[in-house]
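Because discrete structure vocabularies remain unfamiliar, we turn briefly to a single example record, giving the amino acid sequence and backbone structure tokens:
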Amino acid sequence: MNINAYSILEFCERFSIGRSKVYEEISSGRLVAHKLGRRTLITNTDAEAWLISLPRAVSSAADTESIDETSSSETEAVG
């Protein structure tokens, strides 16, 4: 089945995000939503645009070093 719009609950489930955060994104204008009576709907197009607009998660060298240090200290403690 091809879904053309998500309810708030469906959007939350699809994108693993809480309701409060969804309403925060709508209030800020970062996520476009449409009203149909009492229902709030988010179209596929608007959901994709929101997702693409999110900043990229980039790991830095410091993050990698921190992970490496944790791994080696755990190995030393075991061995």
About this structure: Helices lie at 8-15, 19-28, 44-53, 61-78. The chain has a mean pLDDT of 85. The longest strand covers residues 39-43.
